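Hi everyone, sorry if this is the wrong subforum. Our group has a chain we'd like a structural model of before ordering constructs, and none of us has done structure prediction before. Sequence below.
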Amino acid sequence: MRLTEHTFRALAQPMIVGPASEFDRDFVTYFGCSPHIVAKAWNCNNFIGAKPKHLLWALVWMNVYGSERVHCKIVGVKWENRFRGDKGRTCLVTVDTTDVAIPEPPLKPGQERPRNDAGKQLPFNPKWYSKKVGGAALRYETAVCIQTGDIVSINGPFPAGRWNDPKIFHHDLLGKLGPEEMVEADGVYKGMPFDVRTPHDHINEADKKAKSHARARHEIIHHRIDTLRRTHQNLKAMDVGVGTWHRRQCTHRDRCSTTTSNCEFLSRWPRHYVGAVAVGAVAG
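Answer:
Right subforum, don't worry. Here is the predicted structure as tokens:
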């Protein structure tokens, strides 16, 4: 489906705060490129299963790279959105956590990482250790609306080794539930029969299948978050590669330095256009 820049202008209006006269400038501030370039990026890629707003979200994340609260505000992550499409059921959201690997400080000469009983190397501090990533990590809790599939809450970060899933849930999200409201979660959230429905808590086969589908969709969202994180790391490396490549192509390469911000050749190919094209693989 080919789109025009007017489509992305309309989608960006609820995200951008400011006078209408400054909209074009604010658009570039938020997304790193003009609506025309965003439309080009969309039309040059095969975005399977993605919506145009997902491309804008990815561009905001790569360009602004702010805190979780900032991005949640921009893209509209609101706890109240769990009521969209509500059919009067007890459970409105699925809850789960995802671990994001973080770098560890370098070892001093002669120093070794501690190891567990199985001989596996532990991080510099056990409170950061995550079994999911096999090293130091931050843990985030996400809640996804069962009816719409939208993320309605993001909580974190927490040290992965010190904060398990139930502890994070008790820390914040549990207190936000309405009267008699429950959440769908996996088996680690045991011991909370009045707040959490686990995989074994099903009425019939149809209920069991619906619960499994909701949790699987949550896992797909976590997978895409991890993919986008790795793509962002690759884009940082891509900037270095572009710097080397442009010196071979630029008509005034004899005057070019290692920086590319003022290069006349690259000014025709904005860096965020390259980033937007790369995001196509993530959104799909």
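For your construct planning: Residues 1-76+228-253+263-284 form one domain. The longest strand covers residues 91-101.
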